[in-house]
Design brief:
- It is built from 4 helices and 11 strands.
- It has helices at residues 16-29, 91-94, 98-114, 189-203; strands at residues 5-13, 36-42, 46-49, 66-68, 75-78, 82-88, 121-123, 126-131, 134-144, 147-155, 208-213.
- An 8-stranded mixed beta sheet has the order 7-8-9-10-6-2-1-11. A 3-stranded mixed beta sheet has the order 4-3-5, with no helix packed on it.
- Strand 8 and strand 9 form a beta hairpin.
- Helix 3 (98-114) crosses helix 4 (189-203).
- It is globular, with a radius of gyration of 16 Å.
């Protein structure tokens, strides 16, 4: 049954704009019996501004494309070494509200990080996941026809300097971190992907995950 199955698509490296257009089209056209999907991707360097994004949070954006997105939230950065995951879920079928989904995604990320002995937590006043005050994962969602798209960005092992060109997620002075900076041994992106899939299956009560590569 579609309710019990999560179709996982590992897209490799893909540009932000075409990926956004593809998940938007899928959400608009998906049938009521379509299985939920989870897209995993790394984007080339790009800043994305959410629907409510304020220009004052763009401090000195230079040399990197800025895309105006239709997701929630403010401005963020995507780049190589960051795992972006897009859960394309039928929320009505799963009887989930948006706030519940945000909380579940945060729990998924926290559980993945705990598996790497990283003590992470969520904040009630600012969506995302944090470690010792620094942000390690960002969230930005949209819901259409009762279905979610856009999603989360987990910093695995990346160049964090582009975040200095913005107020990340609209918070001046917010420092970003990644898993590699918090671990004494290298972090493999493939292992983080597998851990994320496992936690999505557990936390959202899927019976199986069908994984395919691009």
């Amino acid at each position: 049954m579609p309710l019990d199955q999560l179709d996982v698509h590992d897209l490799g490296t893909r540009d932000y704009l075409s990926t956004w257009q593809a998940m938007s089209a899928f959400t608009s056209a998906r049938a009521s019996d379509a299985a939920d999907q989870l897209w995993l991707v790394e984007h080339p360097a790009v800043f994305t501004q959410g629907q409510a994004g304020k220009p004052e949070h763009l401090l000195a954006v230079e040399g990197i494309e800025l895309v105006q997105s239709d997701r929630g939230g403010q401005v963020t950065y995507h780049g190589p070494g960051q795992l972006v995951a897009y859960p394309l879920l039928d929320l009505r079928r799963r009887k989930l509200g948006v706030r519940q989904l945000v909380s579940l995604i945060e729990q998924v990320i926290i559980a993945v990080l705990h598996g790497y002995d990283i003590d992470a937590y969520a904040r009630p006043d600012a969506p995302g996941v944090y470690v010792a005050g620094d942000k390690i994962a960002s969230l930005g969602l949209r819901v259409r026809r009762g279905c979610s798209f856009h999603g989360l960005a987990l910093n695995v092992d990346m160049d964090l300097s582009p975040f200095e060109q913005i107020n990340p997620c609209g918070y001046a002075g917010l420092k970003m971190t990644d898993m590699a900076r918090l671990r004494a041994v290298p972090v493999a992106m493939s292992a983080v992907k597998n851990a994320l899939i496992d936690q999505f299956v557990q936390k959202l009560d899927y019976k199986t995950a069908i994984i395919s590569a691009a």
